[in-house]
């Protein structure tokens, strides 16, 4: 029987050694999986940060384009207003010159018109007070 006991003990040791090896291999595999998951999470978080930075850059660029467009529109509006004011001043100057010439050519009717306008203004002011 000692032979069977020795074989049994030897088999038990082999099974235990094999179980320890299998446990160590499983432990190492689990560690490798944990490392791979950690690396994947780090890569994903890095990618997310890069994507967020890229999106922020695109938003900034779009805002700059819009600001440039708004500045261009404001500049165009200011130029248009200047041209309109200049045209209006030219027309008023032309009308003033024409009115002066008409008064010089027709002084009596011009005085009569001025008196009529003055009379109408006086009546309107009297009624409003």
Summarize the structure in short.
With 129 residues, this protein is an all-alpha fold.
Describe this structure in words.
The protein has 129 residues and is an all-alpha fold. The protein has two helices and no strands. The protein has one domain. 98% of the residues lie in helices and 0% in strands. Helix 1 packs across helix 2. The longest helix is centred in the middle third of the chain and has 104 residues. The termini are far apart.
Largest sheet: none
Q: How far apart lie the N and C ends?
A: 140 Å
Number of strands: 0
Q: Into how many domains do the coordinates divide?
A: 1
Q: Which regions are unreliable across 5 or more consecutive residues at pLDDT < 50? A: none
Number of helices: 2
- How would you state the average pLDDT, rounded? 82
Specify Rg, calculated over alpha carbons. 50 Å
Reading the helices and strands in chain order gives HH
Strand content: under 5%
Helix content: over 70%
What structural class do you assign from the helix and strand content?
mainly alpha
Q: What coarse outline follows from CA principal-axis ratios? A: rod-shaped
Key features?
single chain; 129 residues; mainly alpha; 98% helix
Helices, strands, pairings?
Layout lengths: L1 H104 L1 H22 L1
């Amino acid at each position: 029987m000692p032979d069977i006991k020795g074989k049994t003990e030897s088999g038990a040791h082999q099974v235990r050694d094999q179980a320890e090896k299998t446990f160590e291999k499983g432990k190492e595999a689990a560690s490798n999986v944990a490392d791979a998951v950690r690396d994947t999470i780090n890569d994903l978080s890095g990618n997310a940060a890069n994507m967020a930075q890229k999106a922020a850059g695109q938003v900034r660029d779009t805002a700059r384009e819009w600001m440039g467009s708004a500045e261009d529109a404001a500049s165009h509006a200011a130029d248009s207003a200047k041209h309109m004011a200049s045209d209006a001043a030219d027309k008023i100057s032309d009308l003033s010159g024409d009115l002066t010439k008409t008064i010089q050519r027709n002084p009596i009717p011009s005085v009569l018109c001025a008196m009529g306008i003055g009379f109408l203004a006086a009546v309107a002011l009297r009624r409003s007070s």
